[in-house]
Design brief:
This protein is mainly alpha-helical. The chain is 59% helix and 9% strand. It is built from three helices and two strands, in the order βααβα. The chain has a two-stranded parallel sheet.
Length: 66
């Protein structure tokens, strides 16, 4: 499954019409799928990778353990 990506740093740097266009895009993503990947947020890749590892480990557990 692929998720839409939204660059938070572009949004934070935008003003006026550009910000409205990005706001509209974010609204569209949320209304259509409810899921998105944020880039430009400043969270270090090591933390993101560690979080995905925890998620993968959880969903690999048998149902009785979840």
């Amino acid at each position: 499954m692929q998720f839409s990506t939204f660059d938070l740093s572009n949004f934070q740097a935008s003003r006026g019409v550009d910000r409205q266009v990005l706001s509209d895009r974010l609204d569209q993503i949320c209304r259509e799928t409810g899921f998105l990947l944020l880039s430009g947020h400043g969270v270090p890749q090591e933390i993101i990778t560690a979080q995905w590892d925890v998620i993968d480990a959880f969903f690999s557990l048998p149902m009785e353990k979840k």
